[in-house]
Design goal:
Blueprint: H1 3-9, H2 13-18, E1 24-26, E2 29-32, E3 44-47, E4 52-55, E5 61-62, H3 64-72, H4 76-87, H5 98-122, H6 128-137, H7 141-146, E6 150-152, H8 158-166, H9 171-177, E7 180-182, E8 188-190, E9 195-201, E10 207-213, E11 224-226, H10 242-252, E12 254-258, H11 261-269, E13 275-277, H12 285-292, E14 297-301, H13 306-320, E15 325-328, H14 346-352, H15 354-362, E16 365-366, H16 367-378, H17 384-399, H18 404-418, H19 422-430, H20 457-469, H21 474-481, H22 492-502, H23 510-515, H24 519-529, H25 532-540, H26 543-577, H27 583-604
Parallel strand pairs: 12-13, 12-14, 14-15
Antiparallel strand pairs: 1-2, 2-3, 3-4, 4-5, 6-9, 7-8, 9-10, 10-11, 15-16
Helix pairs in contact: 3-4, 5-9, 11-14, 14-15, 16-17, 17-19, 20-24, 20-26, 22-24, 26-27
Length: 605
């Protein structure tokens, strides 16, 4: 047995996929909204027996290795190693590619850097400044440990010496991680110096980069510097805290998105721990795609300045493509805070008044409500100029609302706020209908469903029969299969599946049986067992009755196929009788076929 097969056999696909997206039981399968394209109704199915998944919307399908490669964006080797490590299998015979080897080395270097920075902060005397800074900010020891915070000294080559001289990593490889910078005369120096360090992890929990924050407010350098884009680190995909708080987000099916690392850490300390931080103020398509796999609601808590508002507008368009609920924590309009107590960010509120921060999360308003309030605050709704600016700003937003009742609600609210007739507002808003050029209007490759092959009536009947067959208790499957052994299947694959099923020895186990099938047979069986239409139909009816009805339909189609073949032979013989001297012999054959045909027609009723 190959190591790849050994790893696959030791893996439960429902556990692997279920740890990453929410799966619901659906008869013999499990279902979910597809993580690979946008949809509101689940068309993604997983079969534990076949150890395969399939989406009937976009066509994505495969086994656990395929899923990990596509879901986590990793190489085949990385997916295999993830499963092997989980199963306690050492990969000995598998040859890594050069790219895989280099990626492993880069991740190893970054991991050593994380440990080095963390040691300096928590154990070394040079980290006293960082420890004092965090203490003053209210960051506790547990958070420092969970998020592996660190400290970079002011020395130009502290980390460089540790990684190159002590750990013996080549300079060129360290440079590829972004930790060091090449200077003049090919000399190198540390990128992060005299800063508090935040390790940045991908959604698999691997350190892929760092963010460094100045502690000296009077310094002229940028407050934050981040790792550059590398083969491992991509700013647009980064969600700080995701890997540590993933389970809480998945459990609540809700995630709060904040702007900075301290916003996220302070929120978690206030027991609002379904939270992540983005790098910058804009939520990206990649980040929403990742969050949509585990959450149904995204709650934004960005800065209440114009940049934060524009980021919310862009987020509406992105989130709409994922059919998610988008809400906003409006710190500026929190009723529970007096004017004197108003705060500038989640970090400040979570530290100074964690109870009100938790209430703010619970009372988050819809994104449209937030934008409505902001624009009304920005301009005077009583003056003609103010009314015009408000309408110009809100019209494209209102036009983008898909739900008729929700759109009507905000139209009425705007009409009241501006003291303008609703009919006049509708005229102005309608002008923006032709100007939609946003994400919601664009047909992206991700949104498009792959065309599914059209199957004949008989092929669909045969597939449904296969689905029903494997829906029975294991002890009954071979007994039911015996009634199919003489069928003429349109699908050669199903004929072979039945033949192998009847020769199967011992107590039937679908996973073992499927692993013995050739790939083409496995795909045929997967098409049948993962079809949601068959699942729905079988669920709504008695299994035995459905089996008998489907069996009858397939038998009749099988008989019709036999009649077609006999008609063809009769036609051939009838033609040959006029040209040969063996009339008597062929006439006997012709009569025999006619008798067979009549018998088949009688069976059809």
């Amino acid at each position: 047995m190959s190591q790849i097969r050994e790893v696959k056999d030791a893996t439960n696909i429902v556990e692997i996929i279920g740890e990453r997206i929410k799966l619901d039981s659906a008869g013999i399968n499990f279902k979910a909204c597809c993580p690979f394209h946008n949809e509101k109704t689940p068309s993604f199915f997983v079969n534990p027996g076949l150890q395969r998944y399939r989406c009937f919307g976009c066509g994505a399908n495969g086994d656990t290795l395929d899923f990990l490669q596509n879901f986590e964006g990793v190489t085949f080797y990385e997916a295999l190693k993830t499963l092997a490590d989980r199963a306690g299998i050492a990969l000995k015979e598998f040859q890594k590619s050069k790219d895989d080897e280099e990626r492993e080395k880069l991740i190893e270097i970054l991991s050593f850097a994380k440990e080095y920075y963390h040691f300096l902060l928590t154990k070394h005397e040079v980290g006293e400044e960082g420890r004092e800074y965090l203490k003053n900010r209210g960051t506790n020891a547990e958070s420092i440990k969970i998020f592996q915070l660190g400290f970079a000294t002011s020395a130009w080559d502290s980390l460089l010496k540790y990684l190159h001289q002590k750990k013996k990593f080549p300079l060129e490889l360290i440079e590829k991680t972004g930790l060091i910078i090449r200077g003049r005369n090919d000399s190198y120096y540390d990128r992060f110096r005299d800063r508090l360090i935040f390790p940045l992890k991908n959604h698999r929990g691997q350190v892929v980069g760092f963010s460094g924050r100045l502690m000296n407010q009077s310094a002229k350098e940028a407050k934050y510097i981040n790792s550059p884009e590398t083969v491992l680190y991509h700013k647009s995909k980064m969600l700080y805290g995701y890997s540590e708080l993933f389970r809480e987000i998945k459990k609540k099916e809700q995630v709060i998105v904040v702007e900075g690392e301290f916003d996220m850490i302070s929120s978690a300390q206030a027991h609002v721990n379904n939270v992540v931080a983005i790098k910058g103020s804009a939520l990206t398509q990649d980040q929403v795609t990742l969050l949509a796999r585990v959450a149904k609601t995204i709650i934004l808590s960005l800065d209440a300045d114009e940049a934060g508002v524009k980021a919310t507008e862009r987020a509406i368009e992105i989130v709409k493509t994922k059919a998610l609920d988008l809400r906003v924590i409006d710190l500026k309009h929190l009723e529970s805070l007096s004017e004197e107590d108003k705060v500038k960010d989640p970090d400040e509120l979570a530290r100074e008044n964690p109870k009100i921060w938790r209430e703010a999360v619970e009372s988050a308003v819809s994104a449209y409500e937030f934008l409505f309030n902001h624009v009304i605050d920005l301009h005077d709704p009583k003056t003609p100029d103010g009314k015009r600016k408000i309408i110009n700003r809100l019209a494209p937003i209102l036009e983008s609302i898909d739900h008729a009742v929700e759109k009507e609600f905000y139209l009425q609210k705007l009409s009241t706020a501006l003291n303008v007739k609703e009919s006049i507002l509708k005229e102005d808003i309608a002008k923006f209908g032709q100007k939609k050029t946003s994400l919601s209007q664009e047909k992206t490759a991700e949104d498009e469903s792959a065309p599914m092959a059209i199957k004949s009536y008989q092929e669909r009947n045969e597939e449904y029969l296969m689905f029903l067959l494997f829906s029975f208790e294991p002890a009954l499957i071979k007994e039911r299969a015996d009634s199919l052994k003489d069928f003429i299947f349109k699908s050669r694959g199903f004929k072979q599946v039945i033949e192998q099923l009847l020769s199967y020895k011992g107590t039937f186990d679908l996973q073992k049986f499927a692993s013995s099938l050739a790939e083409d047979l496995k795909r045929s069986l997967m098409d049948a067992l993962l079809n949601p239409e068959y699942e729905k139909n079988a669920k709504e009816n008695d299994l035995d009755k459905e089996w008998k009805a489907a069996l009858s339909r397939v038998k009749k189609e099988s008989l019709r196929d036999e009649i077609v073949l006999i008609n063809q032979e009769i036609s051939n013989l009838d033609t040959s009788l006029k040209r040969t001297e063996e009339e008597e012999k062929k006439l006997d054959q012709l009569l025999t076929l006619i008798v067979q045909k009549q018998a088949l027609i009688k069976k059809l009723g």
